[in-house]
């Protein structure tokens, strides 16, 4: 089992960050997330509870396919709560489809920064467990580093959405069509470069595997 | 951003737009009544549940918070399951 944690401060109030969190996808930094659906949602005692199904594409190096399957489209289950009074948003995600051998659990906490309420603190934890697979430590390391890379991209993605929301709020005199057009173009450009960098990671992992004589 | 069911995409866009404005304009301002988007959510949710069933995605246990007996979704299910081969 591998546990990975991280903290990040957004220079935006909690209300802005939570609005952006719902609109986090699509963003150009995390092209791997291809779909979200709300399965259940309800307000209970002033707290918003949501269950979402998240579709993603993970690009694992080829040599791992025999161990964990080709994982083309993955489904994850995301359960969240938003408590507007305590100002806390918690999202718990666990994967549903990698295969029976791997479990990835992730928790995100968004809270106002304890010493500066105009900022938001994000705490992130991921637990990776690989069962009954040869080289499972190596696999856990690989998955943990993939999550770490994705988490960084996720934070950049959220900043991007916040920027978009702030632009909307300011009501900039640009036409919506033009904004959409340029947004789409920048998504395409960044998607391309993100793919490239994942390919590089894959190539390096394959090289490492070759060095370990396991291909 | 797409829905798990291709035919649910338009409902999803409509629902998400409704939710986003409800969340920022009402919920964060202390109004917890969520009936504003309820009609579109009901239709969208039905569509998603159908797609999940067709694609045989196992959502595992549903959080007990949602099991308060309001929904009854086994009542009028059609038996149109696609028996896709397991990969």
UniProtKB/TrEMBL annotation, chain A:
Domain PRELI/MSF1 residue range list: 1-170
GO cellular component, one term: mitochondrial intermembrane space
InterPro entries for this protein: PRELI/MSF1_dom (IPR006797), Slowmo/Ups (IPR037365)
One of the Pfam families matching this protein, by short name: PRELI
GO BP: germarium-derived oocyte differentiation; larval locomotory behavior; peristalsis; spermatogenesis
Name of the protein in question: PRELI/MSF1 domain-containing protein
Organism of provenance: Drosophila erecta
Gene: Dere\GG10142
TrEMBL record, chain B:
GO molecular function: phosphatidic acid transfer activity
GO BP terms: phospholipid translocation
Keyword Disulfide bond attached: yes
Domain of life: Eukaryota
Coiled-coil features, chain-numbered ranges: none
Keywords, comma-separated and alphabetical: Disulfide bond
A GO cellular component entry from the record: nucleus
Catalytic activity: a 1,2-diacyl-sn-glycero-3-phosphate(in) = a 1,2-diacyl-sn-glycero-3-phosphate(out)
InterPro entries: MDM35_apoptosis (IPR007918)
Family label: Belongs to the TRIAP1/MDM35 family.
Protein name per UniProt: TP53-regulated inhibitor of apoptosis 1
């Amino acid at each position: 089992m591998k546990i990975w944690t991280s903290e990040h401060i957004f220079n935006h109030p909690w209300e802005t960050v939570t609005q952006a969190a719902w609109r986090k996808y699509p963003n150009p930094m995390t092209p791997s997330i291809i779909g979200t659906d709300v399965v259940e949602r309800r307000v209970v005692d002033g707290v918003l509870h949501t269950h979402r199904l998240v579709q993603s594409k993970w690009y694992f190096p080829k040599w791992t396919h025999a161990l964990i399957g080709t994982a083309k489209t993955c489904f994850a289950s995301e359960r969240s709560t938003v408590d507007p009074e305590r100002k806390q948003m918690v999202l718990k995600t666990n994967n549903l489809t990698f295969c029976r051998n791997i479990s990835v659990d992730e928790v995100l906490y968004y809270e106002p920064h304890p010493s500066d309420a105009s900022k938001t603190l994000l705490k992130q934890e991921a637990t990776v467990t690989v069962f009954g697979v040869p080289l499972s430590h190596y696999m856990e390391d690989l998955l943990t580093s993939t999550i770490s890379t994705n988490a960084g991209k996720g934070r950049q993605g959220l900043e991007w959405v916040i920027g978009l929301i702030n632009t909307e709020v300011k009501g900039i005199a640009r036409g919506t069509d033009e904004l959409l057009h340029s947004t789409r173009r920048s998504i395409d450009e960044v998607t391309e470069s993100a793919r490239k960098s994942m390919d590089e990671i894959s190539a390096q992992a394959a090289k490492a595997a070759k060095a370990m004589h396991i291909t | 951003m797409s829905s798990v069911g291709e035919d649910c995409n338009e409902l999803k866009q409509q629902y998400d737009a409704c939710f986003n404005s409800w969340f920022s304009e009402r919920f964060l301002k202390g109004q917890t009544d969520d009936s504003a988007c309820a009609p579109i959510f009901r239709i969208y949710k039905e569509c998603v549940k159908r797609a999940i069933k067709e694609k045989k995605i196992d959502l595992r246990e549903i959080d007990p918070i949602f099991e308060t007996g309001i929904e009854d979704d086994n009542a009028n299910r059609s038996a149109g399951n696609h028996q896709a081969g397991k990969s």
